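Workshop exercise sheet. Pairs work together: one partner reads the sequence aloud, the other fills in the structure field after running the prediction. Swap roles for the next sheet.
Pair: D.N. / O.F.
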Amino acid sequence: MGYFLFSFYLQGRSFAMNFDALYYPYPSRRMTVFGRKGMVAATQPLAAQVGLDILKQGGNAVDAAIATAACLTVVEPNSNSIGGDTFAIVWMNKEMHGLNASGPSPQSISIEAVQEAGFQSIPAHGMIPVTVPGTPAAWAALSERFGRLPLTTVLRPAIDYAEYGYPVSPTISRYWEDATRQFQSMGSSEFEPWLNTFAPNGRAPRAGEMWRSKAHANTLASIAETNSESFYRGHLADQIDAHFRKYGGFLRKEDLMSYTPEWVEPVHIHYKGYEVWEIPPNGQGLIVLMALNILKDMDIGSKDEVDTYHKQIEAVKLAFVDGLRYITDPARMSVTVDQLLSSDYAKTRRESISETALYPEAGEPSPGDTVYLATADADGNMVSLIQSHAGDFGAGIVIPETGICMQNRGSGFSLDPHHANALAPGKKTYHTIIPGFLTKDGQAIGPFGVMCGMIQPQAHVQVVMNLIDFMLNPQTALDAPRWRWIKERIIEVEPGFPDHIAQALARRGHIVQRALDSGMFGRGQIILRDPDTGVLIGGTEPRADSEIAVW
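Structure field:
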């Protein structure tokens, strides 16, 4: 597990400590962090420091975000990769921009083709759930439009960590070990490149052990030197194509060549004097806004009242079932964003909430494993960026001699032709990764986000209310115990969640389950900016190896 042998010298004698880097029996506390010239909040300390170093070299918030994101593919490979997707909200020169760098399904795939391969649903691993990766294109697009420094400079720290290695951090070692056991048990040759790359000694690296990948470094260097062209149209695209042909996958070079990320206009609602921003579909950020739309006209008491938790849970349930029914590739949605965010529809959904837990069903609106990071610079520019390859280590497919681990985002598709997310060629599926942002009266307040699958919109709602309704500082807003809706009337609460609240929720008809750890409750970051002084205020996730690097 997390055991690590640490040797040191004292007065000429050698000593050794053998400790578990994942064993923390005593409560600890992090403080809110303040800065002025720059701030980077990320789930891994080395990545956060990389982003700050880029700021000190003259880069802006976008350069810092790209550098941090690239570094995270190396130092947190279980959660994201070069072969994944990226979404970003950018506040640059007092204007808001959105980037959707999620990729579509291959043109050669279809429901019939998957069924003919012997599957009744999309598998979680292997060649079939792989969609076109958007991450390299996202870095290039962000750099070209907003960056100050060349991409070769911005990606250099990540390249160095991949080439020369780094000590694996505790939280990541745990998920790495779980994934290694899983892929070893599959016994298929298509997972051998993953095992050779990430478990070269027959096991996952332990906390504190060094890990490196020369192939990963070479790939990052190629992406930097060609502005991602090698990945989509060059030798890396050829290697991806050849590997998928070898194992009967659907992805082809033609799919990569036709891909470009989309600049989109973020969507928002007004919530108690603030504007809450999310990326529009195919991302699930719309669920956040639908839930807050329901909650904003409800009588909300103090944070630690059972009625507050009950209303939050019920609003999230209603928003979620609507999201799961309607959100998909925006070109194929049966309803519009405006319909789902209308005041009348929010009122209708609000009126269905009673004193007891409901069994949620989708309404009918009238016509009419992931990394999150936040950056800010001294000029007031800020970035909210999230990057993922879906499950831990994605599809488990590594392109030999490249270090590229491919995502399994296609597992979100359905083989039911009547489902909103029915698999189709060249289609984007419902996407879980969502960056968030707050503004007030046209001024940036700051980026926020929480990673981890379906908890993301639920955690966004909880964090936003912690900040706005309950006036908690950014660190406390992240520290607060979380709940998550599972399905029907079932909710799960993490360790530390107040027992008296859990029991009171059960009396209201919620089926309350307690989690053994906080692994599935998300890992978030927040950076806020005082618009009068320019002072930056940051909070970072206690459920991860997170760090805020500040200048």
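Discussion prompt: Residues 281-368+447-533 form a domain with the Glutamine Phosphoribosylpyrophosphate, subunit 1, domain 1 fold (CATH 3.60.20). What would you look at next?
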